[in-house]
Write a structure and sequence with these properties.
The structure holds two protein chains of two kinds. Chain A is mainly α. Chain A contains nine helices and two strands. In chain A, a hairpin with a 2-residue loop joins strand 1 and strand 2. The radius of gyration of chain B is 27 Å and the shape is elongated. The chains are: A mainly alpha, B alpha+beta.
Chain lengths: 205, 268
């Protein structure tokens, strides 16, 4: 049992890293990786939001979307499920969840709010959070599994972002050929980093 | 088919109502009252987020002003009217006639004037350059000219002219960001009204300086003799303008600095 969880954890963090092998969440990966400090803030916020978003999304998925509906109103007989609505539902749920978390953090824990601060609303548009919820729905995972998966995905995102931010800080001091300066060399670096991560693929079968 | 369409519409409507209510209730329950003056003060601030006040940005500074831990005149960029307006919002009194301070790079050794001992091909940053044999210039006190200060300036007030950093006083707002970036401590805050400077920073003896730079202060004391007492201060072999009691600009012509190190910045 514990071996299985270990496999899930390592598999999600390293092998199927959302950023570097599924190419989700590239926008914050490139946008907030200029300096290490903001990258750390963003990583923390993503882990936080992804965990609770996967939790709530899987509750909705398991109890509302996949539930078989079958009832009759007058001469109409309605049957089927609403699983095809998952994209729309998850978008709305994640966006409002971030709002709620932000509002309550502001009151309950001002220091945490100050450190996550501007990154929380940014996450609403992070497709990795959405992708995580959709992946859970697609494979029909339970609530606990989904939450752990969300947390591990967040950790994987954080590792990729922090590694990349550290690389980019070093890149600033390196001599880069003129045509490669700025975003070009950053993208090349991201590609090499992604290639490096394929080396983990043999870790978990 | 149609029934599922209706059902999904019902789902979206229900979801909208539930989520909307949740956010509304949470916003009401966890409401944090913010002083409305913070917003008013922030509107008056320049919004450049230069950090010259010592806070993380203009909004942080506005919070500190309203909270009473900062005063409006700590903002080096604000025009006097804005400071007055902010003080009015808070009901404070201002001290008038705050003299604006600007930065000046006290070195005249550009590529023509200063002697270079070697070529530099390393990282384009003064702090890095100074680590390698104290820079490539003959003078170990002068401007390295790699523009670390120019890049730090949020207002583009520093220009690298022929291998020498030059502050444009009309663009400088006095935020002081450049001062800490200079590894040679060449950049000084001076009152904007004083437009006469000794463009040298080397404390070495006159002949030694002359060997490595043609516009160094050689310590001849000509300006010192022509000025009133305390208007020019001699620090060893280096003349310094006393910015609290500045000499008249005409002293430049009267003294006739042999190297042209004492210069006016308003004439050119």
């Amino acid at each position: 049992m514990s071996q299985e969880w270990l496999a899930i954890t390592i598999g999600t963090i390293l092998v199927n890293n959302f950023v570097l092998s599924k190419f989700l969440g590239i926008c914050p990966f490139l946008g907030v990786s200029r300096k290490l400090g903001p990258a750390l803030g963003m990583s923390g916020a993503v882990i936080f939001v992804m965990t609770i978003a996967s939790f709530f999304a899987s509750i909705i998925n398991n109890f509302i979307l996949t539930a078989d509906i079958s009832f009759t109103i007058g001469s109409y007989h309605i049957a089927g499920n609403l699983i095809f609505m998952k994209t729309l539902v998850f978008i709305a749920v994640i966006a409002s969840l971030v709002q709620v978390v932000e509002l309550s953090l502001q009151k309950l824990s001002p220091p945490l709010y100050a450190s996550l601060g501007i990154y929380l609303p940014l996450i609403t548009t992070n497709c990795a959070v959405m992708g995580c919820a959709l992946e859970n729905a697609k494979t029909g995972r339970g609530i606990l599994y989904s939450t752990v998966f969300g947390f591990c995905t967040g950790i994987g995102f954080a590792i990729a972002l922090i590694l990349f931010a550290s690389l980019r800080e070093k890149l600033d001091l390196a001599k880069v050929p003129k045509p490669f300066e700025g975003m070009a060399i950053a993208l090349v670096t991201a590609g090499i980093l992604a290639m490096g991560f394929t080396g983990f693929s043999a870790l978990v079968k | 088919m149609l029934d599922l369409v209706i059902l999904s519409a019902v789902l979206v409507v229900c979801m909208g109502i539930v989520l909307g209510l949740t956010i509304g209730i949470v916003a009401k329950v966890f409401e944090v009252k913010q002083d409305e003056r913070i917003e008013l003060v922030e509107e008056e601030l320049p919004g450049a987020n230069c950090g010259g006040c010592g806070f993380a940005g203009c909004s942080d500074f506005a919070k500190a002003i309203v909270g009473g831990t900062a005063t409006p005149d700590q903002c080096p960029v604000c025009a006097e009217e804005s400071v007055e307006k902010i003080s009015k919002i808070l009901g404070l009194e201002t001290e008038p006639n705050k003299v604006k301070k600007v930065a000046v790079v006290l070195c005249g050794g550009d590529k023509n004037n200063a002697k270079f001992e070697a070529g530099y091909n390393g990282i384009n940053d003064c702090k890095s350059a100074v680590l390698i044999g104290s820079g490539v210039k003959g003078c170990k006190y002068g401007c390295l000219g790699l523009g670390t200060c120019a890049r730090a300036c949020p207002f583009n007030a520093i220009e690298i002219k022929n291998g020498l950093a030059v502050v444009h006083p009309e663009l400088c707002v006095g935020c002081g960001k450049c001062i800490e970036t200079c590894p040679r401590n060449l950049i000084k805050f001076v009152p904007e009204t004083v437009r006469i400077h000794v463009f040298c920073n080397s404390p070495e003896k006159g002949p030694a300086k002359k060997k490595v730079c043609s516009v160094a202060c050689i310590g001849c004391r000509k300006c010192w003799k022509n000025a009133e007492e305390n208007q020019i201060i001699m620090k060893g072999f280096l003349a310094r303008v006393n910015y609290d009691f500045p000499p008249p600009p005409e002293i430049v012509e009267a003294a006739g600095c042999p190297t042209g190190c004492l210069r006016r910045t308003d004439g050119d």
